[in-house]
Specification:
This is Carboxypeptidase regulatory-like domain-containing protein. With about 230 residues, the chain is mainly β. It is built from one helix and 17 strands. It has two domains: about 140 residues, Carboxypeptidase-like, regulatory domain (Immunoglobulin-like); about 80 residues, Immunoglobulins (Immunoglobulin-like, Sandwich). The protein has a four-stranded mixed β-sheet with strand order 4-5-1-10.
Amino acid sequence: MNPSQHVDPVIATEAVLVSRQVIAIGRVSDGLSGAGLADFTLALGCRDERGSGMLPVDLTVGAGGWFAAHLNCLALPGDFPQGTQFSLTADLAAYGHQPLRLQLQVPAASFQRVSWSLARHPDSSLTRLAGPPVQLEAPLLPLPVGLRGIVVYDHDPALPVPGADVEVQDAAPVTTDALGRFSIAQLPLAARVQVRVSDGTHAQTHHLVVDYGQPVNVATLSLTRSNVE
């Protein structure tokens, strides 16, 4: 190696620590199943008495949706932060899920930069933020899905039930058309939903597992005229 290109290993290690200080740690999960999400985005914003802006961070994601957000504190303004009031905003997004915004009030003292000199290199110093990482827990709810289908008698596709009432909790009831078809624009957010069908004389309840990978779930609901499914 050319002597002019020599990099002191101590300085190189400290420079990495400065540029990748962990500012936030936490977990992103599915809000219904609790399973960790591996593919998501995180943007950190901040507001102090001067105004608002985005924090320069890099994201590392581990198993189970656990993550660490690394801050490049050298890219922050020299007077960051100002005053005593400081808030942190975390915007999270993942495919198939509703975006989530978390807002936290953080002591401004935790974001004050501190520096100290290196004993072996008195002309160099390390810079980092004073406080510990912020902890974030982010359960993301799936995007709502709809339900369409047909109501038939006795599991027989040749016997559609026209004019049947189809009811799902927390959704507006609908009535089947002349061919027994129905459509519900949005199901409640749940792993399973209860669907009640009635022709005015007979009624039956079905429990459906919601597939959030499909924007519209499809189901055939049977109405047993003996009321025994």
